[in-house]
Design brief:
It is built from 15 helices and eleven strands. By secondary structure, the chain is an alpha+beta fold. The chain has one domain. The strands form three sheets. Strands 3, 4, 6, 7 and 8 form a five-stranded mixed beta sheet that branches. Strands 9-10-5-11 form a four-stranded antiparallel beta sheet. It comes from Leptobrachium leishanense. This is Reverse transcriptase domain-containing protein. Pfam families: RVT_1. InterPro entries: DNA/RNA_pol_sf (IPR043502), RT_dom (IPR000477).
Length: 377
Amino acid sequence: MFFFAHGDKSGCLLAHMLQKQRAASYIAKIRDSHKKLHYLPNDIQSTIRSYYESLYNLPDPLPGQDRSAVGTDICEYLSSHLKCRLPQSTTRLLESPLLAEELVGALKSSKTRKCPGPDGLPLNYYKRFLKTLSPHFLLAFNSVPEGRLIPSQTLTANITLIRKDGKDAERCKSYQPISLLNCDLKLFAKILASRLLPHIPGLIQPDQAGFVPGREARDNTIRALTLTHRAQRQGEALLLLSTDAEKAFDRVNWDYLFATLEHIGLGPHLCAWIRALYINPTARVFVNGMYTVPFKFRNGTRQGCPLSPILFTLALEPFPIRCMKFARYPGSESGPYRAQNCGLCRRSFIFYLPSGDHPTQRFTSIPSLRLTLEPKN
């Protein structure tokens, strides 16, 4: 009866629930890159901002080379390891202008009661005034391929931090950054994601299960158990190496990402729409009830964007293909060792090797991956 009487009022019940929520997300101390602990609120904010500003402004993947040389290396990397391309008919279909029906579909499939972006406009605002806003929305975003830029205010995001289970609360990398985008930008990205998603299974090789429709993380779990069982039965030496790609979404190199999109056959209009999401975006981090000073970033796909998992999956694809091509061990019926992204939300890889070799370091520079053997939860 108490919840029935007070659940929808701004009273003590709501205050108590908010207090518990704030306490759970409060960061009491944080360790900087020099392993020094900070306790003061301003120092905590400054340390966290510095960490994410560095994370989203990584140095070039191939230092010491000019941009043309880096572009050549990226093209050679993709040409050698990424053979799947969209049919021309599909490319033409994806190039068509955004339609009102797609906007309606994006609105219907979006969850309400989500935190809005920096502009404070919730999704219900767009649902309530859809007829009025729809023509202006479509005109603005359909003009992007003609050279119109998305306003900088629209590209701003608020980053909220969620601590990963079992991770050290004193380390900045223990927190997962979720970008709260403006709803109009999320709707635009959701339309693009809805267009691309049906074609993703044809572009991604079967070993990669993450974020691909019709595939699940358990597919690779079953494969690992099957190979382990066969190795035991046949007396083969087998090493099962599980790794995690540290801050994988946040480390994606944009030059490499856009080159990948062009390589698989996306047309100029769709590439222009996707590029527009990454032209001088800014973000600020929400720490202990306060926002940091905004900063720009030049790499990463923002977690919280509907298009982000698709872009990450496409950018990741050449890496496991190259690993599988690296070596074929004589006497092994399973051929080359297999590498795959086997987590729907965790950027995980499992390598099956008949020996203890771990040659992945040479494969990770261009896609800006950093593999770690730290245990995952």
